[in-house]
Specification:
Length: about 200
């Protein structure tokens, strides 16, 4: 009887520990999710219509390969990216940029094909995302930074390569302001990229 009672007490204690651990790891507040917002037709009017182009998956550093929303305090330590506790991207930033790029090209009348069709003598665009952060120069002032590097290939031959850097001031000193500024800077970098592609021989 004593052994049975001891066993039951041990089981109850184990269950209590598990329940307490679950409460400790459950977030106290759900994260607000952000993306780059809807595409506006008026921003596409001046972009060139591109001939068929394949776009490979965008590459990014490991810290960007997640939905974590990062910012920097340049006035404290600009070498330390910090994550917002209750704000996240709905997808990794590189994927959000890639989706907007494809949509912008299509809106302008261009043709985007899967990278697997690159064997059909169609140029392949390879992209690397270098930066996608909100940086604070002061507690109430921040700027969004977006960096892309594009390489255009025909087969295994590199045709052209260029980097695109864009900045935009955040309308508010928080994640919501950073998300708006990053969307603005990202769209500007994408527009620059499409304009550059329009100057190249893609046929």
């Amino acid at each position: 009887m004593k052994k049975m009672t001891s066993l039951l007490l041990s089981l109850l204690l184990a269950v209590q520990v598990v329940l307490l651990a679950g409460c400790a790891t459950r977030p106290s507040e759900s994260a607000t999710l952000y993306d780059l917002g809807p595409l506006h037709a008026k921003q596409t009017g001046t972009l060139p219509s591109l001939p068929p182009l394949s776009i490979a998956d965008i590459q990014s550093p490991a810290w960007m390969d997640s939905t974590t929303f990062y910012f920097r305090l340049n006035y404290a330590n600009d070498q330390q990216p910090r994550p917002y506790a209750h704000a996240r991207w709905i997808e990794p930033p590189a994927q959000l940029l890639l989706q907007h790029l494809k949509s912008r090209i299509a809106q302008a009348g261009g043709v985007v094909l899967p990278a697997s069709d690159g064997a059909l003598n169609i140029p392949v665009l390879r992209l690397e995302a270098d930066d996608f952060t909100q940086s604070f120069d002061a507690p109430a002032r921040s700027t969004a930074h977006v960096g892309l590097r594009a390489s255009l290939y025909k087969g295994r031959t590199l045709i052209a390569q260029k980097s695109f850097l864009r900045e935009a001031p955040a309308p508010s000193a928080d994640a919501a302001g950073g998300a708006k500024a990053l969307a603005t800077a990202g769209d500007a970098a994408i527009a620059d990229l499409i304009m550059w592609l329009g100057t190249l021989n893609l046929k």
